[in-house]
Specification:
Chain A is an alpha/beta fold. Chain A is built from ten helices and 13 strands. Chain A has helices at about 50-60, 80-85, 100-110, 120-125, 140-155, 170-185, 200-205, 220-225, 275-290, 305-310; strands at about 10-20, 25-35, 40-45, 65-70, 85-90, 160-165, 190-195, 205-210, 215-220, 235-240, 260-265, 265-270, 295-300. The longest helix of chain A has 16 residues, at about 170-185. Classes of the chains: A alpha/beta, B mainly alpha.
Chain lengths: ~325, ~350
């Protein structure tokens, strides 16, 4: 079994000016990014942003309308089988045959690759050793997802594509999937994942592209993106309704330690470098204006705040 | 990919498909139990019976007693005397095949037969009645004849039926086995997942066909053995010839199943399409009754249907012991249907 050798210095995936239209609908409108060998790259965005279309183009399952894609130094349409030998793929939802056992399913996928890992090793790695003889139809949602990851890993890929790997899973199953992905990364392999969970992106990804309406609207490490807000902390307030209408963000813009202010659904979100300075100033300003607070919370800034500050919407509008 | 790796992938796909099939209890029912129930049921309903008597009515009136007496002793006739109106009524309702109106006293040597000449039973009854009355009136037959009853395996309805059921089973097995399963895999996005591996598309579809053909041997052997054991079905041709004919049929319908399943993204769509394709063949292709019963103008069309070719070919090889060479026309029909639909289906095939 090849414990495949890692990392070439050049980009593992390179995407330029990628576009995809379905009739009049433009799902992807000019996306470009590079994924370096050995890193975990995340496409973070709300449902319908174009994440799945993008990843399926990179997987060679959909043809782009325009743009250039290089995967593992090769192009789709010329070296398809060569790329697929080195690629592990986990689609958004795949329902494996209920009638087959877990071990049989993984063995089937192993047989489709020239080289790969031992079936039992992979099953143990995803924590399904006890279920190896169980029919797929009897597995829970989290176990089925781990089986999907096992099928993606059994060909010993250099590059792993995961499309929303934990959507709909319970917290424990999500953590199990994260551990598997981290284990894969630790062996020096490259990962591309899509998600609309900011905590998932923060936990797993070395770099993130925030994607909305088919375009990349921000890119960087999770830290860089949060820093781009101007402050590591967020103060979220709501004022009492007193007939004077909502408080405008501009009223608080110039407070000490406040970097930016956004209005969102009756709340104001203040990006703040030092909360204690900002909150003192905030109280004074509200008192001068004769407004009283209904609520105030503070927290560390997250990728969710980045998305809100860029789009005025939340990642998951429900 | 080296050939050995490719072969390994192909056999793993076959094995997985085989497991799916035999772990599905419905498959066992439709492939084995259902055709047997069908042949037993139809075999009983249409078993060869001793000849039946013809029911006839004699209109009451002058001369009726003599006529009734003449018919009473004739074989295979059941005569009863009825008033004119009732006799006509019984004829209309099909309770009697012929109404005999005896001649009036001035001319006792004249009788009238009332019947519907489009009914074969009526013609038979008329001829029996006429015979009996002529003999009673003194006719002498110049020829003496003797009757020997012959009912030989090969010419009975059940002998006609079993090859037809084998053909029908090959059709529905091929269509459902390919069509339903492929659309199901498309809906579950398993096709797309397999496309993301180095697997060759033709190998994947080929593995499905291979398993289908493998099952053919078991199905056909089982039905033939059952027919032989339960009904004494004669197998006059070579077993190899029968099997080859069946395998060609299975491949042909697997190709049609692939074509039908090539685009559908809903089970309802593929089920409807399969019914549209199969229903005309169920009716026209001579499974339960001979396709000769359809008008001559339709015959070239019916002969060009794959199930007709398969049924006729199976019957020729099984019942008449025909050689495969003599069936080359039918084999060509199967190969053309199967080959063309496989080629077109592969072109149209939607993986996601």
């Amino acid at each position: 079994m090849s414990q495949a050798t890692a990392v070439s210095p050049e980009a593992t995936v390179s995407v330029r000016d990628l576009q995809k239209s379905y009739g009049p609908v433009e799902a992807v409108r000019g996306i470009a990014f590079e994924i370096r060998a050995g890193e975990c790259f995340g496409l973070l965005g709300p449902n319908g942003a174009g994440k799945t279309t993008t990843i399926e183009i990179l997987e060679g399952l959909i043809a782009p309308t325009a743009g250039a894609v290089v995967v593992l130094g090769r192009r789709w349409g010329r070296d398809d089988r060569e790329i697929r030998e080195r690629l592990g793929v986990c689609l958004q939802q795949t329902v494996f045959s209920d009638k087959l056992e877990v071990g049989e399913t993984v063995a089937l996928f192993r047989s489709l690759y020239r080289e790969g890992r031992r079936r039992d090793d992979v099953i143990a790695e995803v924590g399904l050793a006890e279920k190896a003889r169980a029919r797929v139809g009897t597995l829970s949602g989290g176990q089925k997802q781990r089986l999907a990851v096992a099928c993606a890993l059994v060909g010993d890929p250099e590059l792993l594509f995961l499309d929303e790997p934990t959507t709909g899973l319970d917290p424990q199953s999500r953590r199990q999937v994260w551990d598997i992905v981290n284990g894969f990364k630790e062996r020096g392999r490259t990962v591309l994942l899509t998600t609309h969970y900011m905590d998932e992106a923060e936990k797993l990804c070395d770099r993130i592209a925030v994607i909305d309406h088919g375009r990349i609207i921000a890119e960087g490490t999770p830290r860089e993106l949060v820093r781009s807000l101007g402050g590591d902390h967020v103060v979220e307030i709501a004022v009492e309704e007193d007939g004077r209408g909502p408080l405008g963000p501009e009223v608080l813009q110039d407070l000490p330690a406040v970097r930016s202010v956004h209005a969102e659904a009756g709340h104001l979100l203040l990006s703040v470098t030092e909360p204690h300075l900002a909150i003192r100033g905030l109280f004074e300003r509200l008192e001068q204006g004769g407004r009283s607070l209904r609520s105030l919370t503070t927290r560390h800034a997250s990728l969710e705040d980045v998305f809100v500050s860029l789009t005025g919407r939340r990642l998951r509008d429900e | 990919m080296s050939d050995s790796a490719r072969l390994r992938a192909f056999s793993a796909l076959c094995l997985a498909r085989l497991r799916e099939v035999y772990r599905e209890p419905e498959v066992v029912f439709w492939s084995f139990v259902f055709p047997i129930l069908l042949s037993v049921g139809l075999g009983l309903a249409f078993r060869n019976r001793p000849p039946e008597s013809s029911p006839v009515a004699v209109v009451e009136g002058p001369g009726a007693v003599e006529v009734a007496a003449a018919l009473e002793h004739a074989s295979l006739l059941k005569a009863r005397a009825l008033p004119r109106a009732e006799a006509e009524q019984a004829l209309r309702l099909g309770r009697v095949d012929v109404v005999v109106v005896p001649g009036d006293p001035p001319s006792p040597t004249r009788v009238e037969y009332r019947l519907d000449p489009s009914r074969p039973e009526a013609i038979l009854a008329r001829s029996r009645v006429d015979d009996a009355l002529q003999r009673a009136a003194g006719r002498q037959d110049p020829l003496t004849s003797r009757e020997v009853a012959v009912s030989e395996p090969g010419g009975r309805y059940i002998d006609f039926l079993i090859p037809g059921i084998i053909g029908m089973n090959l059709m529905s097995g091929g269509m459902w086995g390919m069509g339903f399963n492929l659309v199901d895999m498309r809906i579950k996005r398993l096709l797309k997942r397999l496309l993301a591996t180095p697997l060759r598309r033709a190998d994947f579809l080929g593995s499905h066909m291979a398993v289908r053909v493998g099952f053919t041997g078991i199905e056909v052997g089982f039905l033939l053995a059952f027919g032989r054991w339960a009904f004494g079905l004669p197998v006059r041709g070579s077993l190899f010839g029968v099997l080859l004919m069946a395998v060609l049929g299975a491949l042909c319908f697997a190709g049609l199943g692939l074509l039908v399943a090539s685009r559908a993204t809903k089970i309802e769509t593929v089920t409807g399409l399969m019914n549209v394709v199969m229903m005309p063949m169920f009716i026209c292709s001579g499974t339960f009754f001979s396709a000769d019963r359809f008008p001559d103008a339709l015959q070239p069309l019916i002969r060009a249907l794959p199930l007709t070719a398969l049924n006729d070919g199976l019957r020729a090889v099984i019942l008449e012991g025909a050689s495969l060479a003599s069936q080359s026309g039918r084999i060509l029909v199967l190969v053309l249907w199967g080959g063309l639909s496989f080629a077109v289906g592969l072109r149209l095939f939607r993986w996601n």
